Amino acid sequence: MSDTPASIMLVDDHPLLRKGLKQLISLEDGLEVVAECSNGVDALAKAEELDPDLIILDLNMQGMDGLETLKRMRDNGVTSRIVMLTVSDADEDVVTAITNGADGYLLKDMDPELLLDQIQRAIEGKMVLSEAITEVLATALRRPSAPTASKLDGLTNREREILELIAKGMSNKVIARELDISDGTVKVHVKHLLKKLGLRSRVEAAVWMVNQDQ
Amino acid sequence: MSDTPASIMLVDDHPLLRKGLKQLISLEDGLEVVAECSNGVDALAKAEELDPDLIILDLNMQGMDGLETLKRMRDNGVTSRIVMLTVSDADEDVVTAITNGADGYLLKDMDPELLLDQIQRAIEGKMVLSEAITEVLATALRRPSAPTASKLDGLTNREREILELIAKGMSNKVIARELDISDGTVKVHVKHLLKKLGLRSRVEAAVWMVNQDQ
DNA sequence: CGCAAACTAACCCTTTTGGGGTAGTTTCAG
DNA sequence: CTGAAACTACCCCAAAAGGGTTAGTTTGCG
Q1: Does the A150-212 domain belong in CATH 1.10.10.10?
Q2: Which of chain A's residues 79-138 bind strand D, using a 7 Å CB cutoff?
Q3: Model confidence pLDDT, tens digit, residues B61-73
Q4: Dihedral, CA of residue B194, residue B100, residue A20 and residue B89, to nearest 10
Q5: Which residues of chain A are under the pLDDT cut of 50?
Q6: Which of A127, A147, B42, B140 sits in a 20 to 30 Å window from A70, CA-based?
Q7: B-interface mutation test, from A11, A14, A165, most B Cβ less than 10 A away
């Protein structure tokens, strides 16, 4: 062990969870939480400013989500080890996270003691993955590239965004106002996303999407 | 204040969140966490055994969810005050929770200090609701439509049948062939069912329906 | 730098959708 | 028996959706 404690930054929009995590970490010698952020934007700034040893990053956040935050951090040259922390089930996001430079992917519902172990291991430079996750990753790697992460990945950000709005029942006009673009443009995106997904109408798209995220 | 501390039971399948909550509560005089459960089944047994003053119940749990647990507790004669705790946004579940006997509905992402206040108020016998929730409840009560009876019951058999096909993404023409009636007739049924459900398009209907049967 | 992709927007056109109406048949409760 | 409701089907019409094209701007990559 080194003489100075390892610095850890927490990014999660749930104050309670941050509190729990911080308290858990404080129990351990050699670990110190040097910053807490509740959103991606703050996290970006803090990460560059403090350059912590480890960043624990929530995947599901309001505004800029964890994956986006991760990507931007790496783009900005942040070299801290970054571990994604996420609720519940084995997401397909794990592949995206790893390819975008995450050093680990842990589930929030794991045993606290085990979580602490994993945090230690992450700081030591190892890649840490929850049990349930390793399988997902394994099967993902077994299939070299494509079929893993659903047809959603074939869509551009805008298309995915619009698909989500369609899945809320919105019309092109409403979506246009929501995104502040013309409804003609929305139609273009809808057209493209339908073609990419092999669907024939926005209704099919809505149903598909709603069933997609259970 | 009474002389013995108020007993609190935590039910949540996230150990971390339980930890954070427990730590938060321990800071407060007069409050004591007497039990923690990670699932609904355990919670049912513990609740009857310990009869705590307050049960804090996670809405989103694996297995038996919070609402089901709540209902069964009340069915079993548990008289503890029960406050639902849930992630993020203003669900419509709040109505179900309240009608099923919940004494409060709080969001996990609220400020910890405020949460503590609310817990105190709940123990004092008050109903506690997060800011965002009061609105939902208000609008829900403003429409005394049908608490449980679902708007589906207002539809005729044919309309319900067609709604289900819409929820599979089918167009009027396809539905017509499926049911062996003219597409003009399908349009009539769609028209009626949209009106009855207060929706503005088949997309909204599809989304509503898919979300309806989980 | 040059090129590809994404995003934007407009044009054209056909099909689909949804709202209004009338109207015939059947079925079922009062 | 009478009447209401459901189901059927058509009419008209305006709006929305979707498919095709062209085209300008920006962004990122080699």
Answers
A1: yes
A2: none
A3: 887 888 888 988 8
A4: 20
A5: 1, 90, 138-149, 214
A6: A147
A7: A14
- Give this prediction's pTM: 0.45
pLDDT at B114: 87
Spacing of B134 CA from D14 C1' in Å: 40
Q: CATH assignment of A6-142?
A: 3.40.50.2300
Report phi then psi at A34, rounded to 5: -100, -10
Kindly list the distances between the CA atom of residue B10 and the CA atoms of A105, A115, B21, B197, in Å, as whole numbers in the listed order: 27, 20, 8, 38
Residue nearest to nucleotide C18 (CA to C1'): B191
**pLDDT score of B143:** 42
Which residues, 6+ apart, have CB-to-CB distance to B172 below 8 Å? B183, B186, B187, B190
The DSSP element (H or E) to which A33 belongs, if any, is strand A31-37
Could you give the 3-state DSSP secondary structure of residue B150?
Answer: coil
Instruction: Report the Cα B123 to chain-centroid distance in Å.
Output: 21
Task: Work out the minimum CA distance from A147 to partner chain B, whole angstroms.
Answer: 24
Q: Compute the distance between CA of residue A186 and CA of residue A201 in angstroms, rounded to an integer.
A: 14
Flag if B62 and A16 touch (Cβ within 8 Å). no
Helix (H) or strand (E) holding A107: strand A104-107
- B205 neighbourhood in chain A, CB within 8 Å: 169
A149 vs B193, higher pLDDT: B193
Residue in the structure block whose two tokens are 């397909």: A92
**Encoding tokens for residue B6?**
């108020």
Q: How many CA atoms lie within 13 A of A46 on its CB side?
A: 23
Per CATH, the number for B151-212 is 1.10.10.10
Rg (CA), chain A: 19
Per domain, the residue ranges of chain A are 6-142, 150-212
Residue reference for tokens 């079929």: A147
User: CB A23 to CB B23 under 8 A?
Assistant: yes
**Pick from B168, B171, B204: CB nearest A207:** B168
Chain A's closest residue to B87, CA to CA, is A14
Distance CA A92, CA A84 (A): 13
How many other β-carbons are positioned within 10 Å of the β-carbon of residue A146? 9
Which residue type does B133 have? I
pLDDT at residue number B148? 40
For chain B, the residues whose C-beta falls within 8 A of a C-beta of chain A are 13-21, 23-24, 62, 87-88, 108-112, 115, 166-171, 199-208, 210-211
Are B6-142 and B151-212 equal in CATH topology? Answer: no
pLDDT of residue A121: 87
